[in-house]
Amino acid sequence: MIHFNEVVLANGLRILVHEDPATPLAAVNILYKVGARDEDPNKTGFAHLFEHFMFEGSVNIPEFDSPLQFASGENNAFTSNDITNYYDILPATNLETAFWLESDRMLSLDFNLESLETQKKVVCEEFKEHYINQPYGDVWHKLSALAYKVHPYQWPTIGKELSHVENATMEDAKAFFFKYYRPRNAVMVVAGGVKTTEVERLAKKWFSDIPSGELALHNLPKEPVQTEERILELHEDVPLNAIYKAYKMCDRMHADYQASDFIRDMLSTGESSRLYNELVKEKKIFSSVAAYLSETIDDGMFIVEGKLNPGVKMEEADKAIVDSCLKLADSVTDNELQKVKNKTEAYLTFSDTNVLNRAMNLAWYDMLGDPNGINREIDKYLAVTNGQIKTVAQQIFDKNRCSTVRYFAKNK
Amino acid sequence: MNRSIAPDIKTPDSIHLIPSQKITLDNGLQVYVINAGEEDIVKVDFVFEAGKWYEPKNLLADFVNRMMREGVKGKTALEVADIFEFYGCNLESNVSFNNAGFQIYSLTKHLPKVLPLLMEIFTEASFPEHEFETILNNRRQKHTERLAKNDYVANRNFLSAMWGQTHPYGRVTEFADFENVNSDMLRDYYGRYYNASNCFAIISGRLNDELLKSINDIFGAKAWAGTAAPADVTHVAAPNAERRLHTEKKDAVQTTIMIGNATINKYHPDFDKLIVMNTLFGGYFGSRLMANIREEKGYTYGIYSGISSYQHGGILEISAEVGKEVSEATIAEVAKEINIMRTELVDDEELDTVKNYMIGKLMRSVDGPMKYSDVLKGQILYGRDPQYLNQYLKTIETTTAGEIRELAVRYLDFDNMYKVTVG
Fold first, then answer.
1. Do A247 and A321 lie in a common domain?
2. Do B142 and A344 touch (CB under 8 A)?
3. Global pTM?
């Protein structure tokens, strides 16, 4: 059970405080409710580029990192399709340093052109490192564009192409900041060796003079139901033939989400999982296989991927995945269901041990609509029935809702 | 309120360490116990002296460690995995240059149900032929995949140049190596190195007396005592005389750069201050290398220098993935930064930032029983007392600008470094 108190400032900024006297550290997490899904289709990758820009100095403080490091702290951030999340962790005695730094960059940035140009280069190198100069590095670009035709999940957070990052302007940055980086579009979590009264005092001191801003609406088009199988075949310089299958699945708050996650777990987590035993060990079709969820807020993807063993035909490999997935619907035993419940109980308990994780998770559940969701998650998982697994598996593994990317290794 | 003025800070002057105790089981096995935490969870970590250092054939240490969970007397690989996973336990196994380990992460309430099975893995592994074939195939495939990654190729070229094929730290995997191991060799290595005299354990988390008693009942068995790894295994490094190595990848859009050399390890009295020097140079986000090569020039997403300590030597490495067109310029900038380290004194503000950052990092590394168990392991492996960490903190605090420069002169010698590029 994660306890927290809530403080709301007049400008709309909400602060959740989780007191944990056992640690001498404090974690400060600010989640801005903007991600790659909010981008202009011709200016993709911008939310992530902007995340880099947030470290390039604010209106009154030339550098973000060094004062925090001087206060024995560390920080980082990440951007997803749905959110941009920043965190600082430092000794609780130096908590005010994080308030000083975070409030100034919420107030306004330095908007230095030279810094923006440098960060565009850095992000282009990040793009090359992870998405171009890697075997299968283009898979997210291909798979999301195949699976989503209308919804902005059709591009990954790094952006559709390098030129979108290269063409970003300071006007874009200013408009983006004053639209999304306002108190009403953020949620702040302070966790660790802190007291709510002190957090409230610091919050009022540092954040209350920041203009509230407008609530930014997402207004995203809903992806129409997919009604035909989509297959993209690529002949590339990759080491092994590979297959990636993305099935459409429900959104994060849908009642079927936990059952879907159990199906993922049964298929591919651990050495007792189905795909590993059926396809790697018994049939020897793949040398590795995995299933995972895209974990997005709006309708998501249930992805199964595998690297083919030499001599195995692509169609055979594809069919083997389909067969194993379909078989699951009719063959889950009570014992297997109990196993994934036990695994999930352990997983959720372990993810609560670290004060920074707790802060991030609280912010994430707040984004989903209710920070208390963090404490109710386990009950949702434990309530899943075998019947529900069957229904949900049949829904997900519909070939007309599947998008497949097949890699054929050139010269192999 | 003046927003340009930083709030006062206070740098911690000591580290609170969770108390640990050492118990000795009936067969002499030493178990360190860190009984703390808010959640009912526990981690059990066994560390064997069974790493690459001792293997008579390349890959053997790794395959033994991997195959131990692929079936025990009376239970198949699937049955073993299913028992751990039914109770929500995560079993991890790994091999490094000198050690090999097994870790279980479990809810406290389920641990007693899986501990006997862990002991079966340690004493009754069956090494089934058909499972070995699958694992061999998967590893061979993984090797094919890795060879297509430039950073993997660079690391391979870097280590083999520095230590040579005759030394476990420099010996790299070739496809032929997969043909040269068989299950008899696995059984032999297993019998020799996986025993109570050749390991220690750390248990961390929320424990109870019953659990501790069962540890002795299960792992204290005298039949498992065995003998410790021989202390006289030695390997001679055969470094490559050529220090500039390039592998051409014509379609690459980036070049992987690795620069560095063999260096001292934790047994050397300079080591802790060398870490301070390295942190300033390239060991954290605010370092000289990052500030210049990422934040000023935008050549890379990240550039770091790191120092790793192993039982028989250390490795200093600077690594980055940079745009193909700026790879030579990056190497020149690294040389320039090394020269500045060797000739100029760091100012107080920068040095204090590094020290404070390192103290914060130390605090974070011991926050909670399971994180602390990893730090404690690093101390035990080098024969140090847990309280050494407070001494380490004092070492950080008292390092001077003059010492930093002196250490740079001693340990950062660009001409002497290997420069490996792939791209």
1. yes
2. no
3. 0.96
